[in-house]
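quick one, 195 residues, struct below
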Amino acid sequence: MTKQEKNDVIEVLKGKFSQYNNFYVTNTESLTVAQISKLRSHCFDKQVEMRVAKNTLIKKALESLGSEKYAGVFDSLNNVTALLFSENPKEPALILTGFRKESKGEKPELKAAFINGDVFVGDNQLKALTQIKTKNELIGEVIGLLQSPIQRVLGALQNKDAAKAAEAEVAVEAAPVAEAAAPAADSAAPEAPTA
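---
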């Protein structure tokens, strides 16, 4: 690879790291070409971009963007590395987990994940990453929590209105019965003797 080609790869990687707030660093060393192709296909179907690059080029791209920000990822840059870029922070974790189940293997192995500024190191983090809430899921939960008290107040008001309407209905039905009972009581009273 010429120096210009290396610089081109670094520029492409810098663009990807700038574009995405989430990326996974995986070890695909023992996967066959067919398995890599299948993994790429899974990624493509879920709008996750997969890139394979040399570790030194990945490190140079990250260092040029801010070595402190990505410091936790540098130790993971060893062996064969495939990067998974995604807008959705948990989608690559779901892809890796599903791919492992399907192939009944332990690869690709998660070396590190950079999620919205936080670094998760080690394959043991994969399960936790599959349970991360996406931005849309969190927004939905907050909206649901905000709507819940409002719905309870509206429900109480509707029940109060319904109770008032039921009381009014009972009062209207009871009024003719009370009026009918009043004349009957007057006729039943004994007449006073006349002198």
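The two ends are 136 Å apart (CA to CA).
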